[in-house]
Design goal:
Blueprint (H helix, E strand, L loop, with lengths): L4 H21 L18 E5 L5 E5 L7 H7 L2 H97 L1 H25 L5 H15 L6 H17 L4 E10 L2 E10 L3 E6 L5 E5 L4 E4 L5 H11 L17
Antiparallel strand pairs: 1-2, 3-4, 4-5, 5-6, 6-7
Helix pairs in contact: 1-3, 4-5, 4-6, 5-6
Length: 326
């Protein structure tokens, strides 16, 4: 054995060990077939062990150890084997770059997927905010509708009470009729008595109105409500006489003589009569139920009063014979 062969053998063994460890770490399987050129051809077989180491078997050298085989190798073959191992290490380094690129690609895919997921999350968040705002609007509208429904329920309950009251009145209309009809007859009788005792303002017209009321009460075609309306209207007309200032022509019965005169009444306070020739004037004494002739000093004021009532003169202060209240 040459002196340099142990060093070469140790270097080769170290290189093969590093190669085996590197390949085992990267989980790659690499089969190296060393062909040793000797003067005597050898039949070789290769086998890959689970630890990724490469073992050569020679049928002629089965009983020989590894060191004995290496001692018979020439320096040239050992150098060639070292070079092949170095090339294998270089090629494995190149091959190892592919997993790094794959890792970078996978990482890029992960980042892209994360960005897409974040975008989906943002969209879902915006949708949830819109739904929340819509939900709050629906809740507010529901509260408003609840308050409004309570208000409407109150109105409906009040209307129902009104309907119940009207129905009760309708059910008792027959009893009301039985009480209203006698009341209207009593009102007509009272009105007739009042006219006979009152100042004789439009006396004939007022008496005719009473007779018309009695005819309406005897008419079967007139409803009870219309009869009652006519009676109330007659009372309103009688009430209006107390605040009117009016003048009209009529017949005056004085000492058995009928005289055409202009009547003037200041409400029910004063009831006067003026002859058409404006030479005589009379005043009604309701206590005596008779006409009294006035003196000459009252003729001119009565003339002015009649003209004022007929809108021929503007209203003004007048001196009229008015009986003081007792």
């Amino acid at each position: 054995m040459n002196a340099d062969e142990p060093i070469i053998i140790n270097s080769l063994l170290m290189a093969c060990s590093f190669l085996t460890i590197y390949l085992h770490t990267c989980e790659y399987s690499l089969v190296l077939v060393f062909i040793f050129i000797n003067s005597k051809p050898l039949k070789q077989q290769s086998f890959i062990a689970p630890c990724q180491q490469i073992i050569w078997f020679d049928e002629d050298l089965k009983q020989k150890n590894w060191l004995g085989i290496m001692s018979k190798m020439s320096k040239r073959n050992l150098i060639a084997s070292a070079v092949v191992g170095a090339l294998a290490l270089g090629s494995s380094a190149v091959v190892s770059a592919d997993p790094l690129n794959e890792l970078h690609k996978e990482e890029a895919k992960i980042h892209a997927a994360a960005a897409q997921s974040q975008k989906k999350i943002n969209n879902l968040y915006e949708q949830s905010q819109e739904l929340f705002i819509e939900y709050r609007g629906v809740v507010d509208e529901t509260e408003n509708l609840k308050v409004y429904n309570d208000y409407v329920s109150t109105l409906v309950a009040d209307q129902q009470r009104s309907l119940d009251s009207l129905q009760t009145q309708i059910d008792g209309i027959d009893g009301v009729k039985r009480g209203v009809v006698p009341l209207m007859f009593r009102m007509i009788d009272s009105l007739e008595k009042f006219i006979n005792l009152d100042v004789p303002i439009n006396l004939n017209e007022r008496k005719e109105r009473v007779e018309r009321l009695r005819d309406i009460m005897a008419n079967s075609n007139v409803t009870t409500s219309e009869q009652f309306r006519q009676v109330i209207e007659a009372y309103q007309i009688e009430n209006s006489y107390g605040g009117k200032i009016q003048a009209y022509q009529g017949k005056l019965d004085y000492q058995g003589t009928e005289i055409t005169v202009d009547f003037f009444n200041l409400g029910r306070t004063a009831h006067l009569a003026l002859s058409l020739d404006q030479k005589n004037a009379w005043v009604w004494d309701n206590d005596a139920r008779a006409w009294e002739e006035l003196g000459a000093e009252y003729i001119n004021p009565v003339v002015i009063a009649v003209r004022m009532a007929n809108a021929l003169l503007p209203p003004d202060l007048l001196k009229l014979p008015i009986k003081a209240a007792e």
